[in-house]
Amino acid sequence: MKSYLFRLSCMFLMLTAINNASAYDYEKLVRGDYSTKADSITKVLIDRFMIKAYGYFRETPSKVGEFIYWQQAHAMDVVIYSYLRIKDDNPTLANTYATYMQRWYQNHANNYHRDENDPTGFSNPFTDDMCWIGLTLTHISDALGDDSYINTARQLYDRYIITRGWTDSNGYFGLPWKSDNRERNACTNGPGCLLATLLYQKYGNEKYLQDALKIYDFMENVQMPRNASGNLDYSVEDPPLTYTQGTFAEACRQLFHITGEEKYAIMGARVMNYAFTSGRCTQKSPLNGKDVRILRHEGTTMDQSIFKAVLIPYAVNMALDDEMEVSSIIKSCRVTLVTSLQNCADILWENLDKDKYPRAMFCNFYWGELYTGNANDASMGAMVSGASLMEGVARLCNALRKPTGINIMHNAPSSLISHPSSVYDLQGRKIADNPSSIISYPSSKKGIYIVNGKKIAIK
């Protein structure tokens, strides 16, 4: 026992102190618990839009929609985040959600383009569709602790995504939008870059990192508009759309964690901040007697209505990422995100017809307006965006409330050794039952964790 305690204490010498004096208290920005609201909206999404026997979603409560494929990724992401939030308190419902994930996978997310020679079942003429699906496969693997999903994402990437990429005369490598169209755009290369970073972190193959870095260069130097002075305004494409802002910002965040280079963190924060502050991405709406900016109405098509659902989880990730705060620019962005996400959620909740729950409490295309259309015509895209928002804000506020302080850890305190607690990540997800499992050499994982309500950092 003595040798175990000594080893555990030595392992904690790897923990790096976090400067309590300079840490911003994000918890003070939290307005309440959004979990019950998230439960309600996610229930409406699943009950009215999901075909439960197959795990995928309809375009409307009365229509399946032949080409509703890439949108399936973001609808399933809502289920995944709900699963992670409720799995400890409501394991029965969480197990049901896990079953939906498995069915979604088995039925290839309603892929309308099935190639009998494709071992994954998820290949598609649209490269961006495969990128979105690949990202969700990695999310399912993380949630269920099952590598078969991310292994499929890896196959999809290796066989059908990265093989389509091409290099232009200026030396910039990027992914084309379609198999029969060499046009390259942000909506394909943002998620493509992000998927490459996740595959690198999982498998350690240097090729994935090099792919991500090349696509990043393409995004920064080809896709991002510049003003008359040649400076970036941090819109990712023209016109700027929330989903392209979100995926590129998240790719930057992941590249920062992989490389340690601050330029990626700063780029990601500026891109994300643009999405929540620019008049091109937001519009004013009244809240508590004054106007605040919330994400704008981006359109009523299935594609347009689901854009915000893509952005939200990545905005939450950045808002919760203490390690990323390497400059005042990033701190300012994180404060904006915590405040703006709750503004959006509060305005959405005001504009839901709660009297119709759970039959027809539908989210509108713009969160500042009540949905007044026919129940059979409600949009899955709009519903997914609203559910993604509320699940994201619930995750955000739950995680910010978890820590009771920031602990400077040089040696393991005896209380932590004799009374070990579960370990949570900054998204509020339990990742281990005992601190020793995350610090045991050689499987030590870098990051910031919450143990006994204290933040600890392993470098």
Outline:
The chain is α+β, with helices and mostly antiparallel strands. It has 16 helices and 13 strands. The relative contact order is 0.13.
What does this molecule look like?
The protein contains 16 helices and 13 strands. It has 459 residues and is an alpha+beta fold. The N terminus is likely disordered. The strands form five sheets. A five-stranded mixed β-sheet has the order 9-13-12-10-11. Strands 1-2 form a two-stranded antiparallel sheet. A two-stranded antiparallel sheet has the order 3-4. 47% of the residues are buried.
Helix content: 40-55%
Radius of gyration: 22 Å
Low-pLDDT runs of 5+ residues are: 1-22, 404-419, 440-444
How much strand content do the residues show? 5-15%
Mean pLDDT: 89
Q: From the helix content, strand content and strand pairing, which structural class follows? A: alpha+beta
Strand order of the largest sheet: 9-13-12-10-11
Alpha-carbon distance between the termini? 26 Å
Q: The biggest beta sheet, please?
A: 5 strands, mixed
Number of helices: 16
Give the topology string: H per helix, E per strand: HHEEHHHHEEEEHHHHEEHHHHEHEEHEE
Basic shape: globular
Question: How many extended strands?
Answer: 13
